[in-house]
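Kindly go through the entry underneath: sequence plus fold tokens. Please state briefly how this chain folds according to its tokens.
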Amino acid sequence: NEEFKGWDPFDGLNSRIFKNLPINKSRFLRLAFIQFFKKSPINLRKPALVSKGYNPKALGLFLSGYCNLSKTFPNENYKKEILFFVDLIEKKQSKGWSGMCWGYNFDWQARAFFHPAFTPTVVSTSFVGSALLDAYEITGEKKLLEWSRSACNFILQDLNKTPDSGGNFAFSYSPLDKSQIFNASLLGAKLLAKVYSHTKENLLGESAKKAVHYCINHQAKDGSWVYGTLPHHQWIDSFHTGYNLECLSEYQNNTGDLDYEKNILSGTGFYLNNFFGEDGLPKYYSDKSFPQDIHAPAQLVVTLFRLGILKRERLIAEKVLLWTINNMQDKKKGYFYFQKNKLFTNKISYMRWSQAWMFYALSLYLLEFKS
């Protein structure tokens, strides 16, 4: 009904009112404005003149989800949806870089950097590139493999690389920063590995290996990872941990390199033992019950599926999904809420963060248990 357009937790700077105020030049006020919009349970986007739009990462998630549905329930209508998203993804690419790439449809101020709208990132590009490979496997359209290979050029040539003493490196989040964020760098490695499985180019496999090894060197003894290397990145959360495990598993599956099996087992143990309650409650942080964020239960299904253990861990997956449906899905409209906090529930519908992720996760669940 929304035509796949929507708002985002971080889209406050798309406000046409804020854009016309002189304070929009202030890094601090941009950051404060975004956080205010994100944390407010009252949706202020209409009065602030923030329009709904297409988010390229959401388009990638929806594309992968419809590919999963096409595999589960072969249907020409699903193929039409696949072509619809492929067309949109081509139109929404960020131009002027070494390869095809994608970013978010809003200005984004983080503590470490500022990204104007559609600044390409390794995260968006990895999800879109992987979705294009999913579509390639269904349609056989060679251009989709070529687009994913082109995205590898962006990762290898436009992102900054931070080396370590062993010759490994981390990919930056975007071409505009030099951050070392482990899940982001691993997502870049994941796409390189997935394309490598089709093209067998040594450059792709070797670069993915170096990025993986850099992040492995930063895994804690208990199997966990903090978010990144900067002082304000020293938290451990559920879905980024899930990203790391998913990417490591995808790297192994697509390259045949099994050097990191012990790291995956250790990380998986930490993940399952620290982020999900006995009643299925999904936690954001390993040491706190609140908030419950919709991204955490969605990523659980994705992680278990990519690790190849969703059937084995079906009990925890079903507990978490049922808790999520009972506590975070709107009973009348069907959309999923953003977050449950100790004092209130943020029921704003976000297309990328909430709907695309839960759609993608549930499509993988159906794919796994179709028989």
User: Anything to note?
Assistant: The mean pLDDT is 96. The CA atoms of residues 52 and 189 lie 31 Å apart. Residues 122-139 form the longest helix (18 residues). The radius of gyration is 19 Å.
